[in-house]
């Protein structure tokens, strides 16, 4: 599809062979045809920082997925004598926690819960909040007001407070925690989607589509969605890092998983008391939360930069 | 100094000397050859109009004169001298003195060139104080004088207006006032009237012409509009694909263009052609600046192309002493028979 | 390898037959009649003021002609374009397309109107969907009107080649890879893909370089002949309007100030505003420069237009009667009529310069 240099030279010569009046051919640009997402990936390839942190994120996710195969010990097996042991004690690479359980295994298994509680609410919020935002942004006027002002009510609460309140009221647990976080993220996602939709709606090509006689759903599907998904996706990737933090926070407060399930936030909470005995071990779950959250954040930044091209 | 009829006097010194200016924009994906060996001079008090379409390199050339191009991406080489100073070797402080002081620029979009959160008066007085020093009161008095100079009605009231409170034409006049505030010797204008309505455009053009004469400023005016060039220029330089392809006094160039591109431009400008015939458009489109052809950049679209045109970039030819054209069909020397092109 | 054949041939169903079926009103029936169209926008910010963008516009568009609409910013020409397609709903007034009233009980629907009238937008960065390849953008129209994906794609490809873009080279491209002139050709292709009878060109060549503008104007002329189109050409560029139009309508602040055949308007302008517009064109001759601008000041904002004649604040001939009464556009009968909304044109209006006065 891209024109080879020879074909281009030939079409240029062809113009010369004719008198100018007929030579109305247009010369296509020489560089490769690339779709939008393809050019995003191309740009990402040359962003070493994002690639590096993206690799780390990938490792973390893979480690969580393959935890049952990677974990050297059973994360629930306790040992009275082997409590709070340092690195390397009896092949416990990262030592043991306050109940003698292998820390490395618990971190691996804990990653599953933390990632799940961080990512699933973002997905739900993207679908629900994004959908509402697109509807509000496109419909405008009273529908828009109704949706956005409702969202504003939730948006007014600080996110941690709202998550704690909802989760606490529902009684804690993973499921309720995820519902709470979804409710916290939906208004923010709705806002982003609504702004993006309202902006796209005012562009000329949407008006042109209306002038062609297209109905609302057709325009939404063909013209609006493709242009709105970009900002929505970027914002969602930012929310994942926040989600991991908030989820760990809920678990830390006892509103997430119940013991003895491995979860980074819960581990941080229970290891807190042992901080004077073996401070390094106690910092490990916190380090896991920190590293995961930051890596997601940096990767989402890189994606945003790669997608933010004035085309 | 070159008069409009083209006669040449001995010049004391050039206000602007540009020699072999080359600007490339380097990105990972490609290198854009925006300006490819541009040479020209401007005398004090003269108006040079750089005429070209989009992609010709005219705006990049203008911005290079004040080094307004992004420093990392833009690779500039060549010589630029303004009033004897070598612009490309100026340091930060020197550049700040140059910009607004010796050289001033007016832009196409007054709304984006003026800061929306400060009043007009504040922006002008701030510029004056920075370059000329002095107190606030004297600066404000001078700002008022300037607004009246550019014929803004109710100038005293307008000093305290924000840019969005002025109409397009008034904003443009305010920008001109700001540019003139420190008495620059060189004024750079980047299509300042393109975004204006016809009735406003002619007012601003006449104003610029009068101010330029009164204040004796050298001016480089970039435009794509032949009509604008004919209203304001003393000399005109036509750019194509980053090179100057023709240069000379404006009346001569418009009446008797030497380069095929200039001729094509004149023929394709809509101005009273008969409605029953096609306009004589130049076929094809401008070259991709990322892959310039060897030889004359206009060759693919030229009706009189020959083998020689592809061999190398045509050198500057001067058939008459104050006219130049980069075309192999133009005879090289003054005194030879006029080119039958 | 030639991109397209030297003499492009028209594609699609042969225009005369299709037009014969669609030509309900017959050759004498004007294609479009606009009567007293009005559109006011409420000014945001709570004040009770209105932007009177279009304030009582009436005109007739005859079949097969090109009507040029000129005016400066704030005159309402872009709003008018959108009113004609019902992209904005008129506050009052009537639109009659080929004898059928639009959006009325016994007339045609807006959708039916949009099947026959299309618009070419100004080439801006937002005129084409940046996420859609060019051929999909052009194929969208036929697809919406019921053609299958494959058929729409075929129509798109043939239209693209008709406007001078090789469908193999340009079809899969994205708008950001095209030059301004090429994008505008895509805009034109998009408008023509559903075979309209009338095309509204809203500043279609204004953003293009002059040499590209010439190419596109030639293309528009050829397409009009091949597809038997009627054009409504909106522009601020008088030279272009003079070249392409048969008749011209001059707008100022939401109202029509002059209407007539192009030669009459350009050689004997009746309205002082038209004269000022014509006099503002650069001379193209450095030896005969314009020394004094024909008119001073900026076009006023359409929020609170002056009472009576809107132009009186900038008119060198303004008199008390101009403030007291709004001048009416004279009665016109056919394509050759040349009328202006000016008291000086009306005998007995009370203006000292009126024809037949004193």
Second rung of CATH, namely the architecture of chain C:
3-Layer(aba) Sandwich
Q: Tell me the name of the CATH homologous superfamily of chain A.
A: MetI-like
Can you tell me the CATH class of chain C? Alpha Beta
Overall mean confidence score, pLDDT of chain C: 86
What is the C-alpha radius of gyration of chain A, as a whole number of Å? Answer: 26 Å
The coarse silhouette of chain A is elongated
Average pLDDT over all residues of chain A: 82
Please identify, by name, the CATH architecture of chain A.
Orthogonal Bundle
Element pattern of chain A in H and E: HHHHHHHHHHHH
* Number of self-contained structural domains of chain C: 1
Structural class of chain A: mainly alpha
Helix content of chain A: over 70%
Please state the CA-atom Rg of chain C, rounded to the nearest Å.
Answer: 22 Å
Largest sheet of chain C: 7 strands, mixed
β content of chain A, as a range? under 5%
| CATH topology type of chain C | Rossmann fold
Helices, strands, pairings?
The complex is a heterotrimer of chains A (311), B (341) and C (358).
Chain A: H1 5-16, H2 36-45, H3 48-65, H4 67-70, H5 103-139, H6 141-155, H7 159-170, H8 174-201, H9 204-211, H10 216-252, H11 264-271, H12 279-307
Helix pairs in contact in A: 2-12, 3-5, 3-12, 5-6, 5-8, 5-10, 5-12, 6-8, 7-8, 8-10, 9-10, 10-11, 10-12, 11-12
Chain B: E1 16-26, E2 31-42, E3 47-51, H1 58-65, E4 74-82, E5 85-86, H2 92-98, E6 103-106, H3 110-113, H4 120-132, H5 136-149, H6 155-158, H7 168-180, E7 186-190, H8 198-215, E8 218-223, H9 226-232, E9 235-240, E10 243-249, H10 250-255, H11 260-268, H12 307-311, E11 324-325
Parallel strand pairs in B: 3-8, 3-9, 6-7, 7-8
Antiparallel strand pairs in B: 1-2, 1-4, 4-5, 9-10, 10-11
Helix pairs in contact in B: 4-5, 5-7, 7-8
Chain C: H1 15-22, E1 32-42, E2 50-61, E3 66-70, H2 77-84, E4 92-97, E5 100-101, H3 110-116, E6 117-120, H4 134-144, H5 149-162, H6 167-170, H7 180-192, E7 198-202, H8 210-227, E8 230-235, H9 238-244, E9 247-252, E10 255-261, H10 262-267, H11 272-279, H12 320-324, E11 339-340
Parallel strand pairs in C: 3-8, 3-9, 6-7, 7-8
Antiparallel strand pairs in C: 1-2, 1-4, 4-5, 9-10, 10-11
